[in-house]
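Possible regression after last week's pipeline update?

I re-ran a chain I had predicted before the update to compare outputs. Posting the input and the new output here so someone can diff against the archived version. Not blocking, just want to make sure nothing changed silently.
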Amino acid sequence: MAYRGPDAEGLWCSRQRDGSGVGLGHRRLSIIDLSEAGRQPMCSEDGSVRVVFNGEIYNFKTLRNELKLKGHRFRSNTDTEVIVHLYEEEGLAACRRLNGMFAFALWDAHRERLWLCRDRLGIKPLVYYWDGEQFLFASEIKAILIDPEVPRQLDATALQLYLAFSYIPAPYTIYMGLRKLNPGHSLVYQGGRLQIDPYWELSCDDASGSALMDTPDGAVSIQKRLLQRLSDAVRDQLIADVPLGAFLSGGIDSSAVVALMAKHSATPIKTFSIGFRDDPLYDETGYARQVADHFRTDHREFKLAFKDMLDVLPDVMDMCDEPFSDSSVIPTYIVARETRKYVTVALSGDGGDELFGGYRSYLGQYWYRWYTMIPALFREAYFERLVMSLPDSRDTRWKELFRRAKKFIKGSKGRPEERYLALKEIFPERLRQDLLRDYRLDGKDPALMLIQRRLQECGGDSLNALMYTDVIDSLPGDMLNKVDWMSMKNSLEVRVPLLDHRVVELAFQIPGRWKLRGGVTKYLLKEAFRDILPRSLYRRPKAGFEVPISRWLRTDLKFLVERYLAKQRIADQGIFDHRVIDGLVQTHFQKRTDTSWMLWNLIVFQYWFDTYYV
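New output (post-update):
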């Protein structure tokens, strides 16, 4: 994993009293205290506590000062050493004091105890394997698979979840017996036993916030609190001993981060944007430039042709050590690669959509109650029948509109969990069951059960409940996973101030009706920054890192369909039913219904299967 830490490496191994062995290994990307004193594994003064750590602790200076007053002596200026001394002082409760993004493993020789911990929102990854005798852990699955004794057996539940969501949510991985540590959890291995417990749980009970918002100055009060917490988070995350900058898309989230960085920085901040020469519809560089000009940043933009994305496709797909078919991973890789030429740390606006209501799926829930007021006879017999008969595609504006309308109609049927799954899923459950051969599951659909469980955990309103499901599962499993993979591949650290846990906790005290107000997404966040950001941002449509997979699969990437979804190949593999896949391919090429994301999902799986499984 040298790309995750190109600056240094470290290894420590020891034999224990019972004859067993323990080892810690680390690759270092130097960010704070670039000297040799920052090398890992790092140990306590007597050598009894050792730690390997990935990430950043933003409140480490405050904790360090507290610990020094209690008599602890430090040999470095790193945040890593704070973890060692905080553990000596507070034991397993130490993780609750940490504000940051982190995954660490700490060995306590006196107790012969290994302690693994992952940050609250799952910004940094941590995977492990346990077979009853051997316990392995790493930042990536591929590191564990180096051990030839780790079996490679597909997990049927994980496969179902991948086909449903395009990623595999924690604690699952695609392999049986290999698991992700859930965000906000710690794991203790001691005496041959594992114990996993949460140390932080997100509450989405918005009763107090709802009461405040109903007062005359409630909205203004919440906006001020939100601005202050975001400002504190950005300020805390500007600490680094290496060049630092920000991704700037021109959307509200990244623009808000840049605005607050400019407030706290005495020199112009460096900003980076990506645009698409071949498709102005998805090119946001003009909006980003307005923000850069407004805050006088040192701005660079990278204009891509679709060929640029096709050229990096093999590198991107090789990086994903389990199936992952979010196509925005491609431009994410390129913007990380280009940004790394100028800085070592970049701040991003990730998390804003999930916290403040930026996705179309939330709008679907918002409009649902109004839609159901239309008489059922007219709705079903006329409107829905008409819409479902129209051709849909991502290739043109109108056909994309029809596709979204069909998605909305499917998301208006059934119980809340069924409606939301219909808005999110790639393969519906019935199609998954038809597609799979020996990996079908008896009983309830795991994707539906996951969403049902998350909705039940949240005590807030229906909109906040949907956002909660995404913050707990798809944010770490998809968005943050994608950014970590692609940034670390380029030895770039990406920080996400919107996901400071203090900001997240406040966001879920805000009623959903204030996040989507009058059909406006992220209403309250936009109002909080209305006097700070350029007014032009408030009149722009939402785009995002869209990739024209639908068009590519008929043109430049048609060879992938022919190679990976060929009838004989599918039959020999024995996982999928080739008749279902043939139907999806024909439907896509006939341009009647867009099945491109399903086909891409399967192609990515096949590429992964050849690279990591066979």
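Follow-up from reviewer: compared with the archived run. The two ends are 21 Å apart (CA to CA). Marking as no regression found.
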